[in-house]
Amino acid sequence: MGSTNDDDTFVDASTLQSWCDRLGGAGLRSTGSEAHEATIAWLEQELLAIAGLEVRSDVYELLRWRPEPDGDLERAGALRVRTADGRAIDVPLVGAVPYALSTTQEGDLVHLPRDTPIARDNAEGRVVLRDFPAPSLTYDVLLAGALHVSDECAARAGEVYDRPAFADRPIHADLVAAGEAGAAGIVFALDLPRAQVAGFFEPHSGTHFDLPAVYVGADERELLLASAADGARAQVSVNAVVEPGTTRNVIATLPGLSPERIVIASHTDGNTWVQENGAAGVLALARWYAALPVEDRPRTLEFAFTSGHLHMSREGTHRYAEQLDAEFDQGTVALTIAIEHLGVVEVDPVPRPDGPGRELQMTGGEEMFVWPVGPSELLRAAVVEAVARHGVGPVIVVPGVGTPVDGQVPLFGSFGGVGTHFHRHLLPTTAIISCPWTLWSPSFGAAAIDVERMRRQILAVRDVVRSVEDAPLGAIAGDYLADRAARAAGKSVAPDPLHPEDLRT
Questions:
Q1: Domain end residue (candidates: 201, 218, 238)
Q2: What are residue 148's DSSP bridge partners?
Q3: Buried b / exposed e across 79-89, counting CB within 10 Å, b at 16+?
Q4: Which listed residue, 241, 254, 270, 412, has the most CB atoms within 10 A of its CB?
């Protein structure tokens, strides 16, 4: 086992801050866009400057969706209400819904509460007003069966995890249902001030929908509810360029004494300082490991910067996981680690004192994050030890996200983020993930992260690797080996989280 007591040689907080500013300051890096490719190219140049790394790209195709003008979601949509007495009201927007159809359509405005299914008889030819999904996850779900719980998280037992976690699923389902019902458009209303969530990016399924859709804030919701009750009509517009394009995963390999690889990954597309700063963490680990003599690297390290997480129908981590899965039985893959959304400061929704709905408020604390670890006792022990050593803040170490499903492999089908793809392909996996409001809302800028905390989290990841890097492959893999054997014998695999890329007719 390598030394874990040389933290002073690790990348400092000011360097991490400069990298995060480069990533977050680029604005929306939608998958395959010029801004995204510029981010990839910058990371690639940083990797090429590190002696000993072998850098390659895996280029693949996708159908790009780029908001106009200038990649700006807030300006890419428009909503006009025509009242019963003939007035036209232009409604300010949070922004266009990603992957909505680029067109203008009009219809009667109708409010359908969340407990009312969208169907042809209530939505055809109409513009549907729909509330943003209420949080569905509770702390108790995360705490049940947890492997380690910090005191801050234990105190939240019984509470709702009031974050936009998993909102993409009902939003995606609403968009599909509205399209199938022949709706003219859909307006999602958040219960937050428009300025705080301007440019909100969700869903990230990468499915091109077949109707226009936009987001509004809490004040605009009140106007639209009253307008719908008075029999108003609404015109919804989205302006986006849809075209074939390419994107790429960048893989940097650092040879060690063994060709067996330990993979550390994050993704490169994003729209805030939080989404995605994991690439800075992977870059920091690459720089630190490359400075070690090869004799102190028992296994080969592979640093993966994947694409397509904001376009999950063409998810680059899924593509990479398929490749690693095909190679695993040859004994060339020992461990995969995914890191996302690091160093997040806590932002809570609180009652709004001067208007409807709520507002987002920085608490001065640290945001809870989840650290899933697959069925490997060695790996689980290493994670719990690293968490304790580095004081990473509120954390729940879990065997998976959600509820276990008997009769499938793996038992937990999700790790909450890109680590899901490694885990679902039955590669020994651990991952870091959080889902703050600042994940998809750019308004908080660089204030959304604390790079000192981010550095501690990355050091904890490094220590997990150092703890297990010279252990036998079977010890690292643990019960993943039994799961792989069960899959080979025909046992069901957890459902694929990916959606079709194009629903347009």
A1: 238
A2: 397
A3: bebbeeeeeee
A4: 270
SS3 of 312, please? Answer: helix
- Which phi and psi (to 5°) does residue 366 adopt? -110, 140
Q: Could you give the angle at the alpha carbon of 446 between the alpha carbons of 440 and 448, nearest 5°? A: 55
Q: Are residues 182 and 233 in the same domain?
A: yes
Q: What is the pTM of this model?
A: 0.97
On whether both 29 and 113 belong to a single domain, the answer is no
Write the DSSP assignment of 105-137 as a string of letters.
Answer: EEEEEEE--TTS---HHHHTTSEEEEEPPPP--
Q: For residue 3, is pLDDT > 60?
A: no
Mean pLDDT of 314-339: 98
Q: Are residues 427 and 317 part of one domain?
A: yes
pLDDT in tens, 329-381: 999 999 999 999 999 999 999 999 999 999 999 999 999 999 999 999 999 99
- CB-CB neighbours of 402 under 10 Å: 16
Biggest CA–CA distance in the chain, Å, is: 79
* Shared-domain flag, residues 338 and 425: yes
**In a shared domain, residues 312 and 455:** yes
Domain that holds residue 312: 7-66+244-493
Sheet holding 258-267, edge to edge: 54-67, 240-254, 299-306, 258-267, 333-339, 429-432
Cα atoms found within 13 Å of the Cα of residue 150, Cβ hemisphere only = 20
In this structure, are 119 and 232 located in the same domain? yes
In a domain, 438, yes or no: yes
Average pLDDT for 3-23:
87
Output the CA torsion sign for 389, 390, 393, 399. negative
Domain harbouring 301, CATH code: 3.40.630.10
CATH number for the domain spanning 127: value is: 3.50.30.30
Structure tokens at 21: 């500013």
> Count of domains in the chain?
2
Q: Which two tokens stand for residue 4?
A: 């874990």
Report strand pairing: 429-432 vs 369-372: unpaired
CA distance readout (Å), 149 to 136, 139, 327: 21, 11, 35
User: How many C-alpha atoms does 498 have within 13 Å on its Cβ side?
Assistant: 17
Q: Are 113 and 11 found together in one domain?
A: no
Specify the DSSP class assigned to residue 99: T
Q: What is the pLDDT of residues 399-423, one digit of tens each?
A: 999 889 999 999 999 999 999 999 9
Q: State whether 224 and 250 are in the same domain.
A: no
Establish if 140 belongs to a structural domain. no
Out of 136-140, 141-145, 263-267, 287-291, pick the least confident. 136-140
Give the pLDDT band (50/70/90) at residue 2: very low
Pair type for strands 233-238 and 77-82: antiparallel
